[in-house]
Each structure stands twice: as C-alpha cells, then as structure tokens.
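Hey, resending since the last one bounced:
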Amino acid sequence: MFGSSSKPVVLSYGSRRRRAWRPPGWVLWLLFGIAAGAGGLWMLQEEYLPPRLSAEASNELRSAYEQADAERKNLKMQLASTTQQLEAAKATAQRQSDELAAPRAAAQKLGDDMAALIAALPPDPRGGAAELRPARFVAQGNALAYEVVLTRDAAASPLAGVMQLNVLGLTARGAETSVALKPVDISVGGHALVRGSLTLPDGVRPRQVTVQVQDAPGGKTLGMRVMTVR
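The structure tokens again:
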C-alpha cells in the first residue's frame, strides 16, 4: 500500500473547462457606433458636401485668398487716406467760411445802412416808376462827373434802362447851348447809386442837367428831374 511508484500523481478538482474570452457588449456597441459614424460621414461627404479639394487646388485657393486680403488691406489704407483728405478739406472750407463771415456781416451792415440813408432822402417831387433822389454833378475840365441815386418800389420788378443826361450850359463865346450826352445803362432794384463821368464838347461849361430815366435810348420816360451843376 505504501510502496513506491514511478507514475506521476494527477490531482483533479472537477470536470469544468476554461471558457474562451469574449469582449463585453458595450465594447461591441461602441465599435459599431464608430464604424457607423465613419460610414455616415463618408457618405455625407460624397453625396451632399462639396467635393474635397486637391493639394494643388488648395494652394491656388490659399494664394487667391492672400491676394484678396492684400487688396483689402490696400483699399482700407486708401480709404483712410481719402477720409483724412476729406476731413482736411472740410476743415479748410470751414475756416474759409469763418474768415468770410466777418466781411459778409460788414457788407450786410453797410447795405442796411445805405438803405436806411436812402429811405431818409427827400423824395422825388415828380415821382414816377423810377425816382431820382438827390444827385451831384461836377464839371471837371472837359468832363461831367455825376453821382445819382435812383429808387424804385421794392415790390416792383427790377428795372433795366438808360439814364439820359441833357446838359444846358455856355460855350466858350458865352452863348447858351444844350447838349445831349451819351446814355448810361442802368439797372434799378430797390435802389441804385449810378456814378461816373461823361465827356463834354470842347469849351462847354455846364450849368444845369436834366436827368431822364428811360426804358431804352429815346424811349419812354420813367422819371425826370432837373439838377444844377457845381
């Protein structure tokens, strides 16, 4: 019973076999989801999305983008420069307008003062479409200098015509003579100051001037007054 034996002793703990390893179910579902997502992405890319660009097309697109971006930056710089020039021009115009404001105000005041003075002058006793207010005539050698104030109703339309000066005077021999000088073109709105000088015949010394306002040379008389010569 206790004798020696050369056979090995095998111990058996049961008849159960080792099962083969199987991955968990969630791993299989994860792998399936990854594969389905990749397949769906590929199908979406092939069927619905724009085709993928080649390397050459990608380089051309990148080059076009860089060129467009450079042009955009250049246009932005030009816009900034143009805006700066416009602001400078506006500032210059504003400065010039401010500089002209004082002369304009002075001219307006002078015009208002002149209108007030003319309104205070004695009226033309003859009246008429164009009234002759005070005037001044001065003999200067062979010329007759004149300053005549003409007025018209401010509500009436401006009058364009001529001022005719008929001079009564003496010749070099002392004889009385009458001379019609060259008509002077005039334009009268509310008022007008007509000044200048006209040439007299040689040797004539003017004593009196008849002033006529006419609508045209030799035409209808719109106003008349007789003045003395200083």
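The radius of gyration is 56 Å.

Sorry for the duplicate.
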